[in-house]
Amino acid sequence: MRISIGIATVITFAAGVGLAQDSKSLVIEGEEMVTETAAPDHMESVKTIYSGWRFRSEETQDLETDDFDNPGMVFVDQAIDLWETAQGSEGKSCSSCHENVEDFAGLRPTLPKVKDGELVTMEELVNECRTDRMGADAWKWSGGQMTAMTALIGLQSRGMPVDVAIDGEAAAFWEQGKELYYTPVGQLQMSCSNCHEDNYGVMIRADHLSQGQINGFPTYRLKNTKMNSSHGRFKGCMKNIRAEPYNEGGPEFKALELYLASRGQGLSVETPSVRN
Ligand code: HEC
Ligand code: HEC
């Protein structure tokens, strides 16, 4: 196999031009978010954790402060319609069984979590209802309907601190996620940590590197003008380092999701966040 690494694929960090995160506070619709807090004990080389919001440009940041300006809210509105729409052989909608979507407040910060010995994500809980309880097709992991629905459900917990369990039955999944986070992959032999732990705050090409937190997912990206799942983002980062990405919804990305969530313990859920 011929491996060629062109100029464009060589990753360079703009050393010395580190702008770090800014010191602004994020207030959404009058509610103050925690975008900076002490790192959890399990993080050995990072003292303080920051939301990705703190690394974005002022114009991008502003879009998240007001729901009227937040382009992700269009998708939340679509999910409100979906919530009421009967689909599948049972003729049921989400609202047939779950009276108010507000009842899901508190769910987002705890996911992914172990249920019956399996690590489950928000997408899987939604699809379980669709296939097993509605007789409907599963939604695609990063498809428009799924990301709209996970944004609507996540929004009910906006402002609550990320709080995933990493002990007990979750421990083995967490260890797997940690291993993946620190393992160099791809032609460029880089790991998630090389960028998001060792170099956050510096510029990489035209982008300001954050800690790669997932407290704002699913997130609206200006780049593709849609909602993006966390697994979709992991995939993009792996492609950028010329690695073969794992599957969305596969065991590797689910474990990585748990591990990344645990690196953001205490940050506010910002769903739906806005990023470039
Ligand atoms: C036929 C009834 C029914 C329908 C229709 C239904 N659900 Fe559910 N849903 C349930 C039941 C029962 C549970 C399990 C509750 C539990 O475990 O405590 C559940 C669990 C969930 C959970 C996980 C809650 C938790 O705390 O772990 C989510 C999220 C969810 N449903 C979303 C949806 C969405 C979105 C739709 C529509 C696409 C939907 N459900 C349609 C009955 C239904
Ligand atoms: C070559 C550097 C690089 C590597 C390696 C890398 N990323 Fe990223 N990642 C980026 C850049 C650049 C961005 C966009 C700016 C930012 O938010 O950091 C980004 C963004 C993200 C975000 C979005 C953060 C937010 O606030 O919305 C997540 C999550 C993420 N990366 C996870 C990962 C994971 C998981 C891995 C390992 C599989 C990884 N990244 C590997 C460069 C990298």
TrEMBL record:
Heme c 1 binds at residues 94, 97-98, 129. Keywords: Electron transport, Heme, Iron, Metal-binding, Periplasm, Signal, Transferase, Transport. One of its GO terms (molecular function) is electron transfer activity. Its EC number is 2.8.5.2. Gene3D superfamilies: Cytochrome c-like domain. Heme c 2 binds at residues 192, 195-196, 237. GO terms for biological process: sulfur oxidation. Residues 79-162 form the Cytochrome c domain. Its main location: periplasm. It is an enzyme of class 2 (transferase). GO terms for cellular component: cytochrome complex; periplasmic space. The active site is at 237 (cysteine persulfide intermediate). Substrate binds at residue 233. Its cofactor is heme. It comes from the Bacteria. It is found in: Periplasm. It catalyses: S-sulfanyl-L-cysteinyl-[SoxY protein] + thiosulfate + 2 Fe(III)-[cytochrome c] = S-(2-sulfodisulfanyl)-L-cysteinyl-[SoxY protein] + 2 Fe(II)-[cytochrome c] + 2 H(+); L-cysteinyl-[SoxY protein] + thiosulfate + 2 Fe(III)-[cytochrome c] = S-sulfosulfanyl-L-cysteinyl-[SoxY protein] + 2 Fe(II)-[cytochrome c] + 2 H(+). It holds the Pfam family SoxA-TsdA_cyt-c. Belongs to the SoxA family. Heterodimer of SoxA and SoxX. This is SoxAX cytochrome complex subunit A. It comes from Roseobacter ponti.
